[in-house]
Amino acid sequence: MPEKLPVVSGKETIKILVKLGFEVRMGKGDHIVVKKDHLVFSVPLHNTLKKGTLRKILKQIGISVEKFNSML
Length: 72
Description:
Largest sheet: 3 strands, antiparallel
Shape: globular
């Protein structure tokens, strides 16, 4: 059975991305842009990220839900 997506905030997600080697580039409003090599995307600084938003971020960076949960 696949592991469930956690309920996390944008700040928690950015902390995990930094652990994975991403660099915080800039922010405007309630979004922060992160970068690693050729991959650049924004993370909303919401109190809780929507499941679809978190799933899209995980798909973009190429890690599984299990690995993300283990880094919390």
